[in-house]
Each structure stands twice: as structure tokens, then as C-alpha cells.
TrEMBL record, chain A:
Gene Ontology biological process terms from the UniProt entry: DNA-templated transcription initiation
Keywords: Sigma factor, Transcription, Transcription regulation
NCBIfam families per record: sigma70-ECF
Protein name per UniProt: RNA polymerase sigma-70 factor, ECF subfamily protein
Protein family per UniProt: Belongs to the sigma-70 factor family. ECF subfamily.
Matching Pfam families: Sigma70_r2, Sigma70_r4_2
TrEMBL record, chain B:
Ranges for domain Anti-sigma factor NepR: 21-53
Upper taxonomic lineage: Bacteria, Pseudomonadati, Pseudomonadota, Alphaproteobacteria, Hyphomonadales
Chain spans, region Disordered: 1-25
Name of the protein in its database record: Anti-sigma factor NepR domain-containing protein
Domain of life: Bacteria
InterPro entries from the UniProt entry: NepR
Pfam families linked to this entry: NepR
Length: 200, 62
């Protein structure tokens, strides 16, 4: 690594920002599940990042910087359409099924469904760290909170997801020490029910 | 279901860990599914437009 100049020139900035678009889309999709609204949000964040390029310091983490912009856009612009999320669980489920990858395995569907039930602060912490590969410190900077807070959100989110997945299957008894594979079969059964319901 | 009661807690901790790891794998897949999609042209077009607006608009420095 050679020492970098303080600022990237516009061309280098644009290049790096372009490589981040897939990540902006993935993070946006985790915040608002509707694919169209998520792309709307990701585009907005991309343009905001471009306009704020003067304030970006070369050599620092542009991904974390851009995620911060995206997250701020999501939370601060409450009137924007991407804040609208289906509250009715049936609508939410239909959205989930219609907008998700058709090759998703049933267990992924069950997990998506469980994620949708998490409080948004826990969900974003879990997504940033668990899916986006952010360090706790980066996630804390993005969410504007202490590292310890992120750690506890992630751990609560993990626990909650496991509980949601388990609570969906009636035969489960937590004292019985059921094997992970057995638990997974049950998750699959439960996902089967979900998949059987609506048509796309 | 003839598991020893005493090991129940330990067992469920291990289970929790295993399930947590599996969920981690799946989470990465959900994210990667989107991250690996082709970027819609609109993104690149918008960025290009913003870039051109800059060079043709009021240039305040350089």
C-alpha cells in the first residue's frame, strides 16, 4: 500500500463508487424488501455519495462511508416511498415471495421471513455484520452507535431469528435436545407451507 | 428422546451455535444473491449524467 493522496480525483472516485453499487443494492434490499423501492434508495444513495465526494477521504473505507449515506437517507427521509413497508403479514409474505429469487431454497425463504419480523435496528446490525461482512467497528460507525451496542444487537438478532424459526414449528420441544438436522427438517416443513400458499 | 438431562443445557448451546452458523451462511447468501446480480443500467446512466452535469455545469474550481 503506497501512501494515498488526501482526496481521490473524480475519475478514481467514480470508479470506486461504481464497484460499490452491488453492495449498495444488497444493503438497500435488506432495509426495504421491495426490490424496486430498494433500487430507488440505492440510486439515491449513490448520487448523494457522488455529490458528497469532496468530503470523502482517500484511503478510508468507501463502502462503510457509502453505507452510512444510504442508511441516513433511509431513516431521514421518512416521506419517501421506500419507507413504506407492508405491515400486513400476508401482504409482506406475498411481497417476499414475489420479489425473492425464484431459485431460493425453502430454508432461505423461512429465514427471510424471520428477518422481516426483527426490529429494524437488530436486522440492520445482523445484515451488516452477518451478511455484508462489516467489522463490528464499521457497523457501529455506520449506525452511529457504540461497538458494544452493535455486538449486542447482532447477538440478540441471532437469537431472535433462531427462536422465530423454531417457534414456527409446533412439534419442537426445546428440552428434548433435538438435533440441528432435525430442526432443519422442521424449518423446511414450515417453509413448505409458506411456499404452498400464494402464486407469483 | 433419551437425552441425559444434565447435558441438556450444553447440548442446546452447541445446537444454538450450529444453527447460528447455518443462519450466518444463509444470510451471506441472501446478501450475495443481490450483490451478484448485474447492476441495472440505470445506475450507471445516472452516475454518468451526474458526472457530466459537473463538467458542463458551473465549475467552481480546478
Amino acid at each position: 500500500m503506497k501512501p494515498e493522496p488526501e482526496k481521490l480525483d473524480d475519475k478514481a472516485f467514480k470508479q470506486e463508487l461504481t464497484t460499490l453499487i452491488p453492495h449498495l443494492r444488497a444493503f438497500a434490499r435488506s432495509l426495504c424488501r421491495d426490490a424496486t423501492l430498494a433500487d430507488d434508495l440505492a440510486q439515491d444513495a449513490m448520487l448523494k455519495a457522488w455529490n458528497a465526494r469532496e468530503s470523502f477521504h482517500a484511503g478510508t473505507n468507501m463502502k462503510a462511508w457509502a453505507f452510512t449515506i444510504l442508511r441516513n437517507a433511509f431513516y431521514s427521509e421518512k416521506r419517501r416511498s421506500w419507507r413504506r413497508q407492508p405491515l400486513d403479514p400476508e401482504v409482506a409474505e406475498a411481497t417476499l415471495l414475489s420479489s425473492s429469487n425464484p431459485t431460493d431454497s425453502l430454508e432461505l425463504l423461512a429465514l427471510r421471513n424471520a428477518l422481516a419480523k426483527l426490529p429494524v435496528d437488530q436486522k440492520e446490525a445482523l445484515i451488516l455484520v452477518g451478511a455484508g461482512g462489516m467489522a463490528y467497528e464499521e457497523a457501529a460507525a455506520i449506525c452511529g452507535c457504540a461497538v458494544g451496542t452493535i455486538k449486542s444487537r447482532v447477538s440478540r438478532a441471532r437469537k431472535a431469528v433462531i427462536e422465530i424459526l423454531e417457534s414456527n414449528n409446533t412439534g419442537y420441544n426445546s428440552d428434548s435436545g433435538m438435533s440441528a438436522s432435525r430442526a432443519f427438517d422442521d424449518i423446511m416443513d414450515q417453509a413448505d407451507e409458506i411456499a404452498g400458499a400464494p402464486t407469483i | 428422546m433419551n437425552k441425559k438431562k444434565q447435558t441438556g443445557q450444553q447440548k442446546s448451546d452447541a445446537d444454538l451455535k450450529r444453527r447460528g452458523a447455518k443462519i450466518g451462511d444463509q444470510l451471506r447468501r441472501i446478501y450475495e444473491d443481490v450483490a451478484q446480480e448485474d447492476v441495472p443500467d440505470e445506475f450507471l446512466k445516472l452516475l454518468e449524467q451526474a458526472d457530466q452535469k459537473r463538467s458542463s455545469g458551473p465549475a467552481d474550481s480546478e
